[in-house]
Amino acid sequence: MKLYLLLPLAALLGACTGADEAAVTRSGLDPERFVAERDGARTALYTLTNDAGMEACITNFGGRIVSLMVPGADGELRDVVLGFDSIEAYFPENNQTDFCAAIGRYANRIDHGRLPVDGDTLQLPVNNFGHCLHGGPDGWQYKVYEAERTSDSTLVLTMRSPDGDNGFPGAVTATVTYTLTDGNALVMDYEAVTDAPTVINMTNHAYFCLSGDPEATVADDVLQLYASAYTPVDSTFMTTGEILPVAGTPMDFTTPKAVGADLKNFGFEQIRNGNGFDHNWVLDADGDIARPAARLTSAASGITLTVYTTEPGIQFYSGNFLDGTIRGKGGKTYVQHAGLCLETQHYPDSPNKPHWPSTMLRPGEKYRSRTVFQF
After folding, report:
1. Looking at domain 3-206+359-374, which CATH architecture does it have?
2. Which of 55, 191, 311, 343 is catalytic?
3. What are the boundaries of each domain within the chain?
4. pLDDT of residue 230
5. What is the pLDDT of residues 108-160, one digit of tens each?
6. Options 131, 205, 337, 346, the catalytic residue
7. CA distance 203 to 162
8. What does the mean pLDDT of the chain come to?
């Protein structure tokens, strides 16, 4: 693929360790605090590093990126994602968050949980404003993936989802492969197969804080979205089925703009409906991974993140529902807009909008998706 010209994956250096190694990570995490039994499976923390000093710590509970250490302009490593420093804090009975999780089966929302499959309409559980969000109340972000180290810098996580899991049809086997390249990119490869017709739409729900200071906000970060259109939502965050141009609206990030420039522009209906930015943008690249989808820069750290993807859309979420009640790593309080998400995806509620790119997966087919976080 064209990606290999941009990001040579042959130069993969680093180490991936499980919780059996007790050394504290560069981000200050204690792997012992990530060992637990959950639904009969064992959770652990895995650490990937590269020659440039970058480090990614991932737990198999929900396939979550727990920390991501990236060198700033001054060479100092900064943790650029939100999260917790123990596995118990990720359990839904303690914190109902999707921090940096591998989402499945279906990222984003399905209208009122109604899933049409080959003429039948199945009812999925609803868990967000009357809709099915991120696979339902017991989505993959709250389950334990099987973990396998396949090289020093690659971690493969496997989810075996039975027929009827959260109401979705078909037994699905899905994998998320995390690879940390020597060029300071975290690559996520998603694959899935099914034994009956179903829908698949996987993503990572990383909350980025490129300044490395989660007690600040992302308002001053500069964002560019390579997207000329977006999918508007109603007051329940459900897509209306329209695709509208961003030109002349606060949704226009085609040229770099501070995140906070229009964040509180509640006179614009879409920002009012989203309580900020919480929308899907229609990417101009349309699946061409050689073209950027998004670029985010923090002047505070000098760190720039460029996102590449094979997906047609990206959900920009500005951390609107963070409210200062959650304490994350190091006991730091996550205020509103402490982090933002750039979730590559098919469009929300695609199963109910047949004029949009399909998320249907059938027996004998393989779902494939790739996203690159290039720092």
Report:
1. Distorted Sandwich (2.70)
2. 343
3. 3-206+359-374, 210-352
4. 99
5. 999 999 999 999 999 999 999 999 999 999 999 999 999 998 888 999 999 99
6. 205
7. 20
8. 94
What is the residue whose two structure tokens read 């792997």? 31
- Alpha carbon 15 to its chain's center: 23
Q: Does domain 210-352 have CATH number 3.10.180.10?
A: no
Residue with tokens 């609803």: 126
Other Cβ atoms less than 10 A from the Cβ of 99: the count is: 24
Active site residue 343: yes
The reply to whether 134 belongs to the active site is no
> Can you give the pLDDT at residue 16?
40
Domain 210-352 in the same topology as domain 3-206+359-374: yes
Contact 290, 318 (CB under 8 A): no
Q: What is the pLDDT of residues 42-99, one digit of tens each?
A: 999 999 999 888 999 999 999 999 999 999 999 999 999 999 999 999 999 999 999 9
Query: Does the global pTM surpass 0.90?
Result: yes
pLDDT (tens digit, 9 = 90+) per residue, 254-263?
Answer: 999 999 999 9
Strand 41-43 and strand 45-49: the pairing is unpaired
